[in-house]
Amino acid sequence: MKTNNKQILYNKWLNYSVEFNNIILNSSDITNSLTQFWNDVMLQIDKNKVILIQFKIKNSVGEYNSISYVQRVENDEYKLNELIKYFHEFWSLKLEDYYMIKVSSIIYKYKILNIDNLKDSKDSKFKISKLNSHKNIIQEKQPSFKFSGFNLPATMDITKWGACHFYNNYKNAIVYKTKSKSEYVISLFDNYQIVELKIENHTIISFKDSMIDANNLTIFKREIKDQEYFFENGSIILKTIKRKTPYLTKVKRSAGRSINFITMDLETRNINGVMNPYCVSIYDGKEIITFYLTDFKDYTEMLESAILTLMKRKYNGYRVYLHNFSNFDGIFLIRVLSKLSDNIKPIIRDNKIIDLKFNFACYTLFFRDSYLLLPSSLEKLAKSFNVDNKSIFPYLFVNDSNISLDYEGPIPSFKYFINISKERYNEYCMNFSDKNWDLREETIKYCNQDVISLYQIISKFSKEIFELFRLDILKYPTLSSLSFAIFRSKFLKDSKIPLITGKIFNDIKKAYTGGIVDVFKPYGENIYHYDINSLYPYIMKNFPMPIGTVKYFDGDITAVEDKPFGIFDVEVNTPKNLNFPLLQTRIKTESGFRTISPLGNWKNTYLSSEIYKAMEYGYSFKILRGYTFDQGFIFTEFVDFLYEIKVKNEKDTPNYTIAKLLLNSLYGRFGMNPEVENHVIIENNKSYEYFNKFVITDVLDLQNGKEILTYLDNKPDNDEYLTMNISIPIAVTVTSLARLYMYQFKTMNNLTLFYTDTDSIDIDKPLNPNLVGKELGKMKLEFLFKKAVFLAPKVYAGIISDDQEKVVVKGLKTSPSFKDLLSLLKKNTKLTIPQDKWYKNISKGNIQIKEEVYNLRVTANKRELVYDEKNNFIDTKPFILQDGKIMNMNK
Predict the structure, then answer these.
(1) Which segments constitute the DNA-directed DNA polymerase family B mitochondria/virus domain (predicted)?
(2) What angle do CA 565, 569, 571 make, to 5 degrees?
């Protein structure tokens, strides 16, 4: 273990690096390296200093990963053990992602500050993030019946409450409590009673008791304010509380449609493994401005000139669209944008830049990713919206460092073009039969065509959306936000859709899991691959969703209600022999967290519909607590409207494309996590202001005097927190009912099941024709494989014909062959595949491309693997859990 220590500097982010020889990291490495840091840094600074510190790692291929949030540590000796324990906890949470990563160094990123800069804490504890605090779940005790400090009787028999006096023909009563000045004033009815607890004529509390069993007054329901208590033999068996939540409201339609937007595109080249831009085009609908690298000192100056062109008064409030800004163009631009403005506010969700607000003087530009609004390639969108398409271009030609960017000469040979036929190449060459091919001219022409095509696509999309729904797309940065606005403006009726945040969200989100993806049998012949037509829209249209009052309960609600609808915490016991378990659960293994469909017993949270269906297959449950809802059909009109547009228009037309995109983009919007990270680009010497107020989860130094801070701000007064319009019970219901719908295909007696994905199945026989069709929820035959091999979720291949294969390997850009995957059926066989991996460096404003080796092998990710006596992979079977821990994991 080698230390790379730097001299101590104040109010500046530094890296303390402890180098290793590409090891698999364990807890002792963290302890030893952090102790070294403490001795080398903390013991060398004054007691009136504090350190902001973050735990990172660097892997064997040079990639950096943040392990912990930024922590504040005061210079007290006993804090070392506390910090070690905290970083150990973060490492255990990250093991799912990094358990087999070889680590070349641990980096402690730190900044030394005066203690006066951080005065918000009254003690020396770390700021614990919500992520960590959620780990400690305290079991609620069975409540004794005490309400607002008053002990109330646990029976309806008022004669046992104290000295009882009836009057008014036994329609009323007064009970005088023993050793108390208080009394119960009671109005008696046939099957219920209204009670007021009074002291000297002042009502302290009132409640209503209702009979459940007329022969036993200890079995009853008590209602106090928004709470209900169900008693049996003097004990509370169920408690319910109505939770007050706001409801989703309608949005107003737009009076007009804005055309204030610009399209922008960057062309890049890869020189010696580093990708940088060399051409930029900008189009405002009237004029195209182009920037070419040879006209500038370097690409940074070129990008700055391009942005300065946009910084004009006439473009105030404009949206600047780049197709794939989040994952590509933004990598090159953020550093440049931060240099040109001190007021930039990015909104980032799931590592995607949703919106970047760029302020200059008193004006504003909004940089957007058009791919998040129209998630398809520019080539496909151009075809769908009937606009001029992309031309062809020799991408590989510009990657040759020996080629001048001002090259003029013969047209590059066919090998430099990607994904085109020889015929199309020859047609392209005809354009240069009597002239030289000019790289600068052809690059600019190609880049210009991209911004024109994108502008025309967005313009047509905007026009169609406005004519259909009277909404302005420029107000909505993503397709899901647009779909959500369409639902709220046109289809939201009187249904009370509860908006869920806070503890209720955290309780319910445990039930929010996706589709079941599993391998059941690894090899088959004559395999039918079916996909469902619009699974989620089918569920949304045909099944009621959770609406109305949210009611929390503690206890077994089925003891007092017949099949209540809601989301329940339960203890699960499965039947012993079930090859296709219905319920899935998330478990922790040595290799990280996994979502599996096991047998055995465990605790989890499920939609009540899944629980009732599972009981039909022999599952048993103990219901512990949960939430109930009313039900209503809230999406039927939305789905019908869009699906009718889809079926009435031909494929690859604007309206068909719009309907298809919107149909599948709504439900997930209800399940967004309200505990979002916020981001700010700020000067290095001002970042301490955020450390005073927030939990800092990450820091990215832009190496230009500024840094991107990522922080949590989930306070109740956070406007964004209150206006996200989240209703996770709807997202849970849609995904849960979709899994139930898919389960019917797993249990058909005459079929052998090989593989399932969220909305597809692979089986050995054709389905009943009644299940196949073009309607919502019907199956369609996509492929008939002569031979098929299924190795893992999202890893399979099939032979369709003598010259056609279907190969799917998630995460690989270059897929292996069917024959390659077939070889992996032999135990302990692996396939080594070289792949180019992109490393995006926002600090340097470039992308590095490195060739890495991808080792593909069969692993027991979701089910136990079964091998024959010759070590051939022939079958799978469910894992078995005991108290939530896996018992039969392959080692």
Answers:
(1) 311-747
(2) 120
* CB neighbour class for 606 (10 Å; exposed up to 12, middle 13-18, buried from 19): buried
Question: Are 57 and 65 spatial neighbours (Cβ–Cβ below 8 Å)?
Answer: yes
Tell me which residue of 393, 353, 349 sits closest to 370, measured CA to CA: 353
- Which among 310, 326, 307, 317 has a CA at the least distance from the CA of 370? 326
Domain coordinates of the chain in residue numbers? 2-133, 146-243, 261-344+355-368+377-471, 518-634+728-886
Spatial neighbors of 516 by CB under 8 A, at least 6 apart, are 584, 597, 739, 742, 756, 758
Give the pLDDT band (50/70/90) at residue 518.
very high
**Which CATH code, of 1.10.10, 1.10.287, 3.30.420, 1.10.3470, is assigned to 261-344+355-368+377-471?**
3.30.420
Q: Are 596 and 879 in contact (CB under 8 A)?
A: yes
What span, in angstroms and rounded, lies between the C-alpha atoms of 632 and 547? 6
DSSP codes joined into one string, 569-602: EEEEE--S--SS-S--EEEEETTEEEEE--EEEE
Distance CA 675, CA 847 (A): 30
Produce one character per residue of 414-434: b if its CB has 16 or more CB atoms within 10 Å, e if not. Answer: eebbeeeeeeebeebeeeeee
* DSSP secondary structure letter of residue 498: B
Residue range 206-265, pLDDT digits in tens: 999 999 988 899 999 999 988 999 999 888 999 999 998 999 999 999 989 999 999 999
Give the contacts of 81 (CB within 8 A, at least 6 positions apart). Answer: none
Least Cα distance to 775 among 557, 541, 550 occurs for 541
- How far is CA 587 from its chain centroid? 18
Distance, CA of 858 to CA of 85 (rounded, Å):
35
Q: Which residue has the higher pLDDT, 29 or 674?
A: 29
Residue 201 has pLDDT above 90, yes or no: no
Rounded Cα distance between 209 and 195, Å, is 8
pLDDT in tens, 117-171: 655 444 434 443 433 333 332 333 333 367 765 778 999 999 999 899 999 999 9
DSSP class of residue 309 equals: H
Burial of 851 (0-12, 13-18, 19+ CB in 10 A): exposed
> What is the per-residue pLDDT for 174?
96
Q: Does the 2-133 domain belong in CATH 3.30.1490.100?
A: yes
Work out whether the CA dihedral 786, 789, 794, 795 comes out positive or negative: negative
Task: Look at the alpha carbons of 491, 493, 495, 497 in this order and tell me if their dihedral is positive or negative.
Answer: positive
Do residues 628 and 504 lie in contact, with contact meaning Cβ atoms separated by under 8 Å?
A: no
99 CB contacts (<8 Å, ≥6 apart)? 24, 590, 591, 592
The string of pLDDT tens digits covering residues 568-602 is: 999 999 999 999 999 999 988 766 788 999 999 99
d(CA 845, CA 824) in angstroms, rounded, equals: 40
Instruction: Give the type of residue at 264.
Output: M
Highest mean pLDDT range out of 88-97, 385-394, 760-769?
760-769
855 burial via Cβ count (<10 Å: 0-12, 13-18, 19+) = exposed
Question: How would you classify residue 255: left for phi > 0, otherwise alpha for psi between -120 and 50, otherwise beta?
Answer: alpha
How far apart, in whole angstroms, are the C-alpha atoms of residue 82 and residue 319?
48
296-305, 417-426, 523-532, 780-789: least confidently modelled range: 417-426
Judge contact between 332 and 845, C-beta under 8 A.
Answer: yes
Cα 451 from Cα 447, distance rounded (Å): 7
Q: 161 φ, ψ to 5°? A: -90, -20
pTM for the full predicted model: 0.84
What angle do the packed helices 535-542 and 728-746 form, to 10 degrees?
Answer: 110
Structural Rg of the chain based on CA atoms: 32
Phi-psi region of 669 (alpha: psi -120 to 50; beta: other; left: phi over 0): alpha
Give the mean pLDDT of the chain.
88
